[in-house]
Amino acid sequence: MSFAIALAPIEPRTDQDAFSISDLSAEFGVTARALRFYEDEGLIAPERRGLQRIYSHRDRARLAWILRGKRVGFSLAEIREMIDLYDIGDGREVQRQVTLERCRDRIALLTRQKHDIDAAIAELDEFVTLLAHP
Question: Is 95 exposed, middle or buried (0-12, 13-18, 19+ CB in 10 A)?
């Protein structure tokens, strides 16, 4: 079984069978509170041993997906939809297609926003020039 969920590859960790909250916090630079939040949201599902959370390779891979999705601006609902498609049993084809579509949509949105920002900067530059040289 591959421990990286489709298209969000991470280095396999064959040195450990499971991970603690502090292991994943340190590896991914997130707080324990963030990991508990993702658990509350149903995005990861660590095993419980008393009060201790035990994270699997699957949880680790899902966390990588979550953090990548957040970095590029996907909502948690969008991230959940994409990672949950891993489990439908079609060799990840639907997950790949949905993720591809979502990424293309996100690129288009960011491109439009970049254009708007560039136009605002140009207008401000012109205004500054006018103000600086009456």
Answer: buried
In 3D, which of 112, 93, 109, 34 has the Cα closest to residue 67? 34
The model carries a pTM of 0.78
List the structure tokens of 58.
């699957």
Could you identify the residue written with the tokens 């500054």?
128
Instruction: Give the gyration radius of the chain's Cα atoms.
Output: 20
> What pLDDT, in 10s, does the model give residues 37-84?
999 999 999 999 999 999 999 999 999 999 999 999 999 999 999 888
CB atoms within 10 A of CB 4: 15
Phi, psi of 74 (to 5 degrees): -75, 145
Question: What is the spatial distance between Cα 131 and Cα 134, in angstroms, rounded to a whole number?
Answer: 6
